[in-house]
Amino acid sequence: MSNNVYASTFNGKHVVLQPTDMHSLKHLYSWYLNLEFELAHLMHDVHMIPNELTFKDEFLGALKNTYHLFLFIYLKGESNRDPIGYVSTYKFSKADGYIHFSMFLIPEYRKMYYSIEAGIMVFNYLFMHYSIRKVCSTVFGYNEICANLLISIGFAKDGELRKHKYYNGKYHNVLVMSLFKEDFYKSSQKYLDRLQKSHTHM
Hints:
Blueprint: E1 10-11, E2 15-19, H1 22-32, H2 35-40, H3 52-65, E3 67-75, E4 85-93, E5 98-105, H4 114-129, E6 134-140, H5 144-152, E7 156-167, E8 170-180, H6 181-200
Parallel strand pairs: 5-6
Antiparallel strand pairs: 1-2, 2-3, 3-4, 4-5, 6-8, 7-8
Helix pairs in contact: 4-6
């Protein structure tokens, strides 16, 4: 049974979030081949992918059975229409009211507003349409940029798993973070107002 929600395209002021297609899958595969991707992304333990076809088959299976949302991030108005990253949600617990979240952006876009806007649209959608009281996320301990970004939109640090994730001969600490619905709307209202204004002037 499929868990994935085939949501409509999300339109922001600077970015657009769109469901998976074959074009975006090619980019996802190229990111997986990059060692830097594995350091940035905690959800999958992918160490060796035989070929692009096998990767696509495995991912499409995960899209049906693992992910709740999986949306690629595009710059609004870009002519070449290549994705710059993605957002995903998974492990949705209806009984306990939480869901897990992850995001990946290619390096040249990580210090910009795009990640905040993409996250804001997804969190607002989740809290408005589902009985979710909090969103959970994990971040490498050394990734201060990502941790501070999450904190800016209401996330709090729940704890730290010491020497938890093994990569390249070393164990890395992992931060466990969460965002409660009330904290999101308290911290992110200015971003939501900005998105609303951009839509009314379109």
